[in-house]
Amino acid sequence: MAFIRVHQKNVKNVEEAIKVCPFNAIEFKDDQIEITSACKMCNICTKKMPDIYEFVEGKKGKVNKDKWKGIAVYVDHVEGNIHPVTYELIGKAKKMAKKINQPVYCLFIGSNIKHKAENLLHYGVDEIFVYDKEELYDFRIEPYTAAFENFINKVKPTIILVGGTTVGRSLAPRVAARFRTGLTADCTILDVKENTDLDQIRPAFGGNIMAHIHTPNHRPQFATVRYKIFDTPEKNKTKSGKITKCKINKNKLISKIKVLEIKKKEKVRSIEEADIIVVAGNGIKKEKDLEMINQLADKLGGMVASTRPLIEAGWTDARQQIGLSGRTVKPKLIITCGVSGSIQFVAGMNNSENIFAINDNPKAQIFDVANYGVVGDLYEIIPELIKKL
Amino acid sequence: MNIIVCIKQVPGTSEVEIDETTGNLIREGIDTKMNPYDLYAIETAMKIKEKNSANINVISMGPPQANDVIKEAYMMGVDDGYLLTDKKFAGADVLATSYALSQGIKKMDNFDLIICGKMTTDGDTAQVGPEIAEFLDIPHVANVKKIIDINSTSITVEMDMPETVEIQEVELPCLITVEKDIYQPRLPSFKLKLATAKRKIKNISFNDLDDDNPENFGLDGSPTQVLDVFPPKSNRINEKWEGTGKELGERISNKLKILKFV
Fold first, then answer.
1. Which of A102, A117, A313, A328 has a 20 to 30 Å separation from B43 between CA atoms?
2. What is the pTM (predicted TM-score) of this model?
3. How many domains are there within chain A?
């Protein structure tokens, strides 16, 4: 079996040799350096101290990679409404497929979805495999897994991409386990090698590190990718590719799950859940000027938040307050308008992914945390921004 | 009724960074804790126990130090704990971890329900629950936000979907993964700490499992391999833009388009 061999005689400094492991998986016991079961096989020790730690490969797998062809995308949908992550994955699949000169497939599982499948033909997919059965109307894990399994056995794709959605994150691991193959969650970079091995890169071990992962001896290779990681491909005017209706035995579609009721969620969102937030600060002179902020948030599909002074003035609701005495937010995008950036405010938002700050004082503290500090008059900038969006 | 909760010991600090000059991983302190999402899984089991008579067992996989999280589970009211520990399990990816856990679960008492947290804070994949269910050939429901009812043959839950909430009735035995905030987890009790101080933790090693092929475990049983780790490329941007209102408005708009917010 594969393992890390320790060359004890090359150990000069025991403490250093132990410290190389960030997971405390190296111990000194009975005068020997030992790798414990906490090892995550990150191979940092073998790279940093190659004369002490050596990676010994296990038996090579027997998978015949030539038998697995094509890149498949699972069509993520609820009641036939296709989730946009699907198009992004098709775009990525097409780029990779071109490199290895293989086809792109879609797998569409559901009920009454034929006309929706037609629409996918505008995106340059070679073949769409459709499992259209009444039993597949609701997402229930066993019948969906069965259809997925049927597809893999029939088509044998080398790579399968699944959206990192609620459904995808439940379905992909189930299918990957059935085929005893690897699945890398939430990849942020994907590429393919000539031998069809998938290069998968994702944040690992808590977030501030990226790991480069591959699945060298197993097929198919599974990866999930979150929405808005890859680009959406252009929609072609003409259709291409074909739709193949797939058969599956009814007894494969039996489920131990009954869907009793589906309730639409009320759309009461708190600012903590928003991906995009526009913040109104003290630079807003009149209550009426908040309209401009609302308009900007609407254009971006985001929510409006504010700082404490505006709440105290009664212009905004306390639930909209960001800061130590308000809410902590971590949106993908935050645009602060006329916010000076007090410590108590910044503590509630400095983990946001993209921070734009508009303020006319070039020395405002908010510019210390902003990724894009925009020095100017918000009354000139925001109307122009709204016009351009 | 027998309930199994899967728990994991994770690093106390979730932030691990790479020293950009030396390439070394830096993790402050060597603290460990129970994966915070698992607290909700244990609390869910406790809530079920309060209404029905139930026996709650936890299972964890990891080095012997992972006993600590099982002791913590005892302090929350869990009845028995099992630790799957063996050097042969080292270097396991999601598949090998899930498989080993499913093998370990087969060595425990018969179960009606398995509860997992939504995900772990160190792996962050949310995959182990569904994979365990597959290896045990039982149905699973992920993203459970509420337990509506449970009886000897089925459980009724609310599943949280992006735009809807689905009420599903699932036959037992089954596995559920629960959302954060399903119930407010109780704090470990000092009284229970004293009462359970001598309670044993049962170890399960490779030799105890039905599957005696070591190639299905640890690194050998892991289809995915880490080739390399490196710091993220995007260094924190800190730009300052000046210009007229018109220029700046346009510049923000262009940037938002590049960043795909528009």
1. A328
2. 0.81
3. 3
